[in-house]
Structure formats: C-alpha cells, structure tokens
C-alpha cells in the first residue's frame, strides 16, 4: 500500500486558509486534518484529539526536546505545535493528511518533511500583480518597482512552495487543491 | 499572459488513449487537440487542418529536414507526424494543447519539448501489478520475477513520464487528467 501524502496549506494572514479548509472538509471527507498540540486550556465543547491535543507546558517542552513536533510557535502566551506522530501514523495508514498553517510554520515543516506537498494560498490581487510584474511589462519601471516592494516578502516565500492557489472563489480554490492532490497521486516518482 | 501547456497523452497499444481523448474533448472544450500531418490521402469527410494536415511526400520530407515536426513515424506506407508550428502557436496564445500519441513518439516529443507534461495511460492490471511488485512483498520471489519480466518493458518506459493515469473507468481517467492539467497550472515554476 502506498503511503499517504502530507498536504501543507499555507499563505499570508487573512487570505482565507481556514474557510478554504472547512470547505475542503465537506468536499473531501477522506482527507484527514492534522490536529495541533497546545498548552492553551480547552474551551467549552473542545475535545482532546479532535480540536487539539491538550498538553501541559512541561509535556509540550518535552515534545520539543524529543523532536516530536514538526513545528511549533508561541502565541499570546501559549504554545501551539504539530505533533509528528499523528502525521506519520496517518500517512503510514495510506491516508492523506492536510495541515493548515501560517507561512513560517510551513517552512519549518518543510525542513523536517521535504516530501510534503506545499500549497501557497494567495489573494487574487497578489496573483494578478505577479502576472503583471512577470508578464508583458507595459507598465513603467517605477510602478513595477513599487508594486514589487509591496509584494516581495510574500513572493519570496512563495518560491519555497510547490503550488500557488488563488483564492478568488472558495469553490474554485477547493477544486484546485483537490486537483493537486489527485495529480500528486498520479505522479511518477523515481 | 502565461503560455499554455503541452499535454502528451500516451500509453501502450490498446489501453484506450483514443476513447479517453474523445471523452476529454467533451469535458474540457477549452483544450486544443494537436492535428497531425500525414501523407495519407484524405478520406470522405476529412478536412485539412481539422482531422489532419494533408501533405505530399515531398512536403513531408521537407518538414522533417527543416525540423518542423516534433516526431514522425511511418505506418502502412504513409508518414504521420506532429507539426511543431501548430503546437507552438497554440501555446503562445496561452492555450493548452493535448497530443495523443504512442509511446515511442511521445519520447521523441520529450527530446524536443522537455517542458511538456507527459502522461502515461496504464491498464488497471499493470498498476495493480506494480503496486504488488513494489508493495509489501508477500508473494514468492519467483512469482514476482515472472510478473516483473512481463511488465518490465512498459514500466521501463513509464519512468520517462511525469504522471501515470490508470484507465480503470473513462470518467475517472478523465478526471485525473483534468486534475493534472489544473495542478500543473498552479505549479510554482522557478
């Protein structure tokens, strides 16, 4: 049995990663979603192993020390991270797993898991801008330079990814991500 | 405007390339189909530039000499080939073009057009066999060796391709090919 694929969905803040991921859940029920570990206390209705793996700070620090997290970050005084075991066990079962994560975290996952499929969700305007910048060059150099300087941070990170998916419409973005997953399963690997 | 993609659909004789291509035409009307050049005489109802580009033998030999064909072959006394101009003009317009071709021809196209997307259509049994051969290894070595020797010619060619698509059901095969095309358009190219 072939191993599953690790799909990493990332992109700039506010691009709509969460919304796209929720829509994908509906469209692709066979896809497993990575569950994060956190030191934050559970909120009403949150279940251990479903919403999060809830950990004490000591447990979390020990996971870091034993390389049991693919990435981790601190946010508002709490730790959040991606447990390696859950990802690897899912892949071993031949199931695909998707990880929704911000850009820096995704690049850390790539260091530990270069065989993952890294998808960068972009706002439509960034894509349009990129097309114009790299395209036919009918604008003045000054205009291009200014736009480049605004977009450059994100474009610099995009190059570390395998795919760029424009989030112009949620249905279209989902279809593109589904297509990437299907295509990756057809890929001839040497 | 981004250039279109050259999609090369190939696979062993009898695998159903023509049937899958016809189904794709229905599903993806925006896809252009490569028109072959031939020295064969037009049959009733066949149109120049639609079914084939009809050429005299001298014209065809001159196209070979001037590197105007991505590949060519002789079959039952007539020449057949893929005109480079038609492919390149379509790509320049930003349109994808699909070329349905036998395995040796596809590999010749790859020499001249390595940036093409090479898809190998496989019969389901080959895929199953490959999975078993490369999989968990519960069969005896003798059985594996025998099966390998039957499949080895095709598997040896498969490795030159980017994608393997199983033609188990036409609709599924079409969906996989459509997914590959969508995914390739999302690919981050360095």
Query: CATH architecture of the largest domain in chain A, please?
Result: 3-Layer(aba) Sandwich
Low-confidence stretches of chain A: none
Sheet with the most strands of chain A? Answer: 5 strands, parallel
Task: Write the element-wise H/E pattern of chain A from the N-terminal end onward.
Answer: EHEEEHEEHEHEHHEH
At CATH level 3, the topology of the largest domain in chain A is Rossmann fold
Which sequence of strands runs across the widest sheet of chain A? 2-7-1-8-9
Q: Return the structural class of chain A.
A: alpha/beta
Separation of the first and last Cα atoms of chain A: 17 Å
Q: Considering the protein shown, what is the CATH homologous superfamily of the largest domain in chain A?
A: P-loop containing nucleotide triphosphate hydrolases
Q: Report the C-alpha radius of gyration of chain A, rounded.
A: 18 Å
Strand content of chain A: 15-25%
**Biggest chain pair contact, residues each?**
A-B, 26 and 26 residues
The number of distinct structural domains of chain A comes to 2
Question: Oligomerization state of this entry?
Answer: homodimer
CATH class of the largest domain in chain A: Alpha Beta
- Summarize the amount of helix of chain A as a percent range: 40-55%
Description:
The structure is a homodimer of 190-residue chains. The first copy, chain A, is α/β, with parallel strands linked by helices and 190 residues long. The first copy, chain A, folds into 2 domains: 1-31 and 96-190, Rossmann fold (3-Layer(aba) Sandwich); 35-95, 2-Layer Sandwich (Guanylate Kinase phosphate binding domain). Helix content of chain A is 45%, strand content 21%. Chain A has 7 helices and 9 strands. Chain A has helices at residues 17-27, 57-65, 84-92, 103-112, 124-134, 141-158, 170-186; strands at residues 6-10, 32-33, 36-38, 52-54, 69-75, 78-83, 97-100, 117-122, 163-166. In chain A, the strands form 2 sheets. In chain A, strands 2-7-1-8-9 form a 5-stranded parallel sheet, sandwiched between helices. In chain A, a hairpin with a 2-residue loop joins β5 (69-75) and β6 (78-83). In chain A, α1 (17-27) packs across α7 (170-186) and α5 packs across α6 (141-158). The relative contact order of chain A is 0.20. The A-B interface holds A 1-2, 119-120, 131, 135-136, 158-159, 161-165, 175-176, 178-180, 182-184, 186-188, 190 and B 1-2, 119-120, 131, 135-136, 158-159, 161-165, 175-176, 178-180, 182-184, 186-188, 190.
């Amino acid at each position: 049995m072939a191993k599953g694929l690790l799909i990493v969905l990332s992109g700039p803040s506010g691009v709509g990663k969460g919304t796209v991921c929720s829509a994908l859940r509906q469209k692709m029920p066979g896809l497993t979603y990575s569950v994060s570990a956190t030191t934050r206390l559970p909120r009403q209705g949150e279940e251990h192993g479903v919403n999060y793996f809830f950990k004490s700070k000591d447990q979390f620090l020990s996971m870091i020390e034993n390389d049991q997290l693919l990435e981790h970050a601190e946010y508002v005084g709490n730790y959040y991270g991606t447990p390696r075991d859950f990802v690897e066990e899912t892949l071993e079962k031949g199931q695909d797993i998707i990880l929704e994560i911000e850009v820096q975290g995704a690049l850390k996952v790539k260091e530990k898991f270069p065989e993952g499929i890294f998808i960068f969700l972009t706002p439509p305007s960034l894509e349009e801008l990129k097309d114009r910048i790299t395209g036919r060059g009918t604008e003045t150099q000054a205009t291009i330079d200014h736009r480049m300087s605004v977009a450059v941070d994100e474009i610099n990170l995009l190059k570390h990814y395998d795919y760029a998916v424009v989030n112009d419409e949620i249905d279209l973005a989902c279809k593109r991500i589904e297509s990437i997953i299907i295509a990756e399963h057809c890929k001839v690997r040497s």
